[in-house]
Amino acid sequence: MSEAAEWKRQAAREALSQVESGMTLGIGTGSTAEAFIRLLAEKVSAGLKIVGVPTSERSAALCRELGVPLTTLDETPELDLAVDGADEADGALRLIKGGGGALLREKIVAAAAGRMVVIADEAKLVETLGAFPLPVEVNGFGVTATYLAVEKAASLLGLTGALTLRQEGGRPFITDGGHLIIDASFGRIPDPEALSIALHAVPGVVEHGLFIGLASSLVLAGPGGVRRLER
Ligand SMILES: O=C[C@H](O)[C@H](O)[C@H](O)COP(=O)(O)O
């Protein structure tokens, strides 16, 4: 196992220590969330009683394969805990998510959870968000108009940079919700709250990857061990 994979596992193990029998869980997406699902499945087969709401078809498939019991957010609209990865996090526990395209369901699930624990390797902690391109999920209708409106909304905040329609296999990437993703390389985002409001005001934007006020705890693993930041 690579060092990075081992750190993801360590962060996942720390998050798992917060899971108790009887809990309802939001289950994240991505390679770090996958490490969590694998450890969770071991505990479930050893008798842990939980039920999870997956944040993507990909995580749902892995949970089914490993025997992690699932429900839907409609059946269980209030969750005890959500555990998920992140593409970037700052010291105020603001995040960029959506590198894997799951940001919409991830945000809905995080908002429905009493607590959100974010698991990541140390390299994801940044001073200022934005080195990672911000995923913006958009409706397919009028995507060029939405693209221009996103560009304008960002430029009014002094943010410029390339906006690219995410591709996969030579075609536009389609999210689990049937939408498209524009990856916005703004560089440093000094005021994520203002950008969040500006993007939500653009018709055609379904959701964006800035997670603000959602993470309660950030578990970071790296060469120096595992540590937690709390909000
Ligand atoms: O859409 C994907 C999610 O937001 C992931 O949690 C995020 O991209 C981090 O993924 P990873 O753990 O693979 O770095």
UniProtKB/TrEMBL annotation:
InterPro entries found in the cross-reference section: NagB/RpiA_transferase-like, Ribose-5P_isomerase, Ribose5P_isomerase_typA_subgr, Ribose5P_isomerase_type_A
Reactions this protein catalyses: aldehydo-D-ribose 5-phosphate = D-ribulose 5-phosphate
Catalytic class of the enzyme: isomerase
Record-annotated active site: 106
Domain of life: Bacteria
Chain residues that bind substrate: 29-32, 84-87, 97-100, 124
Gene3D superfamilies per record: 3.30.70.260, 3.40.50.1360
Pathway per the UniProt entry: Carbohydrate degradation; pentose phosphate pathway; D-ribose 5-phosphate from D-ribulose 5-phosphate (non-oxidative stage): step 1/1
Keywords carried by this UniProt record: Isomerase
Assembly: Homodimer.
Function: Catalyzes the reversible conversion of ribose-5-phosphate to ribulose 5-phosphate.
Family: Belongs to the ribose 5-phosphate isomerase family.
Protein's UniProt name: Ribose-5-phosphate isomerase A
Native source species: Aureimonas populi
